[in-house]
Amino acid sequence: MTQHQKDGVVIQVENLGKCYRIYDTPKDRLKQALWRGNRRYYREFWALRDVSFEVRRGETLGIIGRNGSGKSTLLQMICGTLTPTEGSVQTHGRVAALLELGSGFNPEFTGVENVFLNASLLGLSEAQTNERLDDILAFADIGEFVHQPVKTYSSGMALRLAFAVLAHSNPEILVVDEALSVGDAAFNQKCMRFIQEVKENQVLLYVSHDPGSIASLCDRALWLHKGKEKGRGDVRKVLDFYSKDCYGANQETNLRTTSQHTIQTYTNETQPTRNSASDIEPLKLPCNTTINTNQFVQNTFGDGAILIRQFALFDTESPEEKLKLLRGGESLQMSILAECLIEPNAPSICGFIVRNKLGLTVFGENTFKPEQPGDGPIPKQGQWLLAQFKFTMPFLQSGTYIISISWASGSQSSHIQNCYINDLIELQSNASTFRPIHGIIGCPTQAFSIETY
Fold this sequence. Notes:
With 453 residues, this protein is an alpha/beta fold. The protein folds into two domains: 3-240, P-loop containing nucleotide triphosphate hydrolases (Rossmann fold, 3-Layer(aba) Sandwich); 253-433, abc- transporter (atp binding component) like domain (Coagulation Factor XIII, Chain A, domain 1), CATH 2.70.50. It starts with a helix and ends in an 11-residue tail after the last strand. The chain has a six-stranded mixed beta sheet with strand order 5-6-7-3-8-9, sandwiched between helices. It is built from ten helices and 20 strands. It has helices spanning 3-6, 26-35, 71-79, 111-121, 126-140, 155-167, 185-201, 211-217, 235-250, 293-298; strands at residues 9-22, 43-56, 60-64, 86-91, 95-98, 173-176, 203-207, 220-225, 228-234, 300-301, 306-315, 325-326, 331-340, 348-356, 361-366, 384-392, 395-396, 399-410, 415-429, 441-442. The protein is globular.
């Protein structure tokens, strides 16, 4: 047994890289074969390079990144279906992977025949497959189609059968790509229940474009971008950086170039020097949340045309008391004050998101009206804007919750981020200590009873 096995390391990746040769014409490929290493008629494309990490037993690693970031290449090398150009991959235990729909299936074979074929590829003997056949077919739930050739299956049926075999192979390392998005809702829930069971004792590598599923399933996250690692570690922090990068790819993020003295927070006690053409003084909101200037810049992105200056969240029954602990059912008001520095060319939208400690979005709201998409104001330079939300706080499981706020210009589906402040305020909930909460949010039940007749 190696030292890594003693430490519980199941997957060890060191300086992993995969390079492909790109030829402009078929002639160049032939020339390269004739000249061998004496001359080079190709360009190098590194699909993945300099990636290193370890995964221990009982851990779940989420891998996120845009198309072409190297996620599938990494998984194929971990599964042993692709040879690395440089670096090494070591796995300790049976690897079961669902990378592509129906991978390992022969389209001319029936579903049952492909069960035996695919199970053998996953390391099961014929006797073991026979013992589990009824459970596999029940899990897949495709009826009499199991006796028909797989080429007659829909993509969803092929997924069901492939995942059913994988689920009953008792993998020590489970690798799941985004293929699960093809299945229906009921089957997705069945798959997720199985994945939750696997992650308790085995290793799970989960690839997705959806930050929500990564946050709900994974202990750690790895962010790949253009074949290189851009972030690794705490799920919430990695997903925050990934979301920021996704916005930055579509618009200029230049808040760091905004002069430091313009990025300030208004409080009840002091008013900073004005730097806009507006003569209107900012409102004095109750229970102001003071934002540290350095933290404000670090956790904020956007084009800076509109900057959030002040934020307040308070109980309408006691607005002067600072809100820290939530029990659920409170009547809350959120006020967000912003200043227009550069006149935008689209209506304003303001919104907020509440996430749990894993980074999973619990709920949120914004001022966009689908029935009146152009209803938001278009402010002029120097004007102030005040957005207000009044809502009843839902019943949340006990724990930590974080609020992020945003000001944008445009519509729900197409907009420019002016000012997005991540992890602005942290709140604690103790609602579940008064009554058990089943799920992320408790049901605001008015009354319940049991009667006998």
